[in-house]
Amino acid sequence: MKLKFPGLIKETMPSGNTRWRVRVEGQKARRIVLHVSPDHKEFLECYLAARRGIEVKPESKPEEKAIRGSVSWLIYRYLENLKSDVENNLYSEDTLKQRNNLLSRLHAEYGEYDFQMPQQAVLQIRNNMKSTPGAADNMMKAIRAMYKWAGEIGDCSKDFNPATGISKLNKSSKGAIPWTVEDLRKFREAHPAGTTAHLCLTLFMFTACRISDVIWLGRENEFDRSGIKGLGWQPRKRGSAFVEIPMLPPLMKATRAATVQGRTYLLTEHGKSFASPESLRNRFRKWCLAAGLENRSSHGIRKAAGHLLALEGCSQYQIMAIHGHAEARTSEVYTEGVERWNLARSAMETLKGLEW
User: Fold this and answer.
1) Alpha-carbon distance 90 to 225, whole Å?
2) Structure-derived torsion over alpha carbons of residues 75, 76, 78, 80, reported in degrees to the nearest 10
3) Both 52 and 84 in a single domain?
4) Could you tell me if 30 and 120 lie in one domain?
5) Which helix (H) or strand (E) is 259 found in, with range?
């Protein structure tokens, strides 16, 4: 199929070299030189920019490829700053990935709009995503964060944020569904001891850690204290407190059951650590479906652990110690150091009698 590029001009120079230029749309007398040929991977992007009157050089920053003051221009600047924040451990890689995906969609559909667009336009963006309410709400969250940053650096007024005040679509959602005892039984029946799936479930249940942490937990995180084997880690989620918990027999047994051992407890079928939380999330979803469990996630196990601890009489501070929360929502009491270890130890003791 032959592609047509209106305004594209091929010129042969006296030297014999070929030069490509593009007429600016609406300005026939103005022509922009292209620094790449049609076989270059960035040709289309450079051509489209030239049609808008922008000369793009290969070494140009992404924001320089967009019309200054446009939505795309702001998105490029914001994501570049977010990458820097991730490198400095202010945000997680997951946050960057999610916002990059969402804002790339915004860039594709509304990139040439003036970035100081009215709230009605942002509301329309949300309404166009009604078929996926969760994604729509996340889009609003990403836009709010972007404009908040723009206000802080002076790109716009701090009072200007077109996504502020737009209500959520997914109002009925209460997050991940907590697993029941029956769910746990069904999963273990489908995935017996010794399998990676069983080890994964055991790690989630007896550490209450997030999927972003479980992929890198391993023997390097183990320690001995007062004759007790413990597991300690710093959760990757921003603001989380360091976690130290005793390793109960079911967890010890499961982590030693695998025939192939590696740097991390969880290994793929190729004997390597999972590359990302998303790769394990996809695998865990397949394990759940194989067990006849739909709409179940790893985060629901974290909730189940919290509920079981509460049912066994643990205080909110004991649960807080295990989950790595920096503070309890209903108080401003903090638990740190030895106190946190003692709380976690007494809390985990309540699960010793749980049949596994």
Assistant:
1) 31
2) 160
3) no
4) no
5) none
